[in-house]
């Protein structure tokens, strides 16, 4: 997959593209990154990318020309994603859909507004949540990160990305490693027992408990079997 990032702050992408899973993905040829400073595409004599809003008001508006010309130049095809606070909420389901594409183009801005005509070249507008950031770069990295880890050949275990938490829709059970006693806090007996059937059952129950305690909304529209129903009643009584 080719991932393009159009930004006025290309240096923000230096660390992440050269580290950890992003680096592994490009070393393996599963992902390729191209970061473009779209200021270079401005037809303005001072390379200006913003201007005053028609109709007046505070704040500047990102001009359409530099971004649209940059997209035309760097990518003849691919899905164009604009990160904005007004976008559709991001989700694991969206990440899985984007992971099927060959080329993604992320538009990252730092503006009060984008000239509406930029949207003529945009396929999808995404927000990563209801909090105010300073720009679209971190959101683009968040979206790209969630996509890159799903690409074939990126994670050591091909199936792990699909069998985990937000895909099965529940939170994970607690985990423990050595020592068995850390400052008086002991590992649950069952995990030391070697009885794999009991361990599996404990993990299923603690998965349900954690989800019930922290994210009851995830259990709302869900079918529960007899065992899960019994555990839920037990939690409610405790
Ligand atoms: C005064 C109205 N502001 C909207 C809440 C203007 C504004 C603030 C911050 C416009 C853009 C930004 C920068 N944020 C993003 O570009 C952004 C973002 C975010 O702030 N939160 C969650 N997801 C995203 S995606 C892009």
UniProtKB/TrEMBL annotation:
Catalytic activity: guanosine(37) in tRNA + S-adenosyl-L-methionine = N(1)-methylguanosine(37) in tRNA + S-adenosyl-L-homocysteine + H(+)
Domain (tRNA methyltransferase TRMD/TRM10-type) ranges: 1-219
Location of this chain's protein in the cell: Cytoplasm
GO BP term, pick one: tRNA N1-guanine methylation
Positions annotated to bind S-adenosyl-L-methionine: 109, 128-133
CDD domains attached to this UniProt entry: TrmD-like
Recorded GO MF terms: tRNA (guanine(37)-N1)-methyltransferase activity
Family matches, as NCBIfam families: PRK00026.1, trmD
Task performed by this protein: Specifically methylates guanosine-37 in various tRNAs.
Protein name, per record: tRNA (guanine-N(1)-)-methyltransferase
Organism: Natribacillus halophilus
Lineage: Bacteria, Bacillati, Bacillota, Bacilli, Bacillales
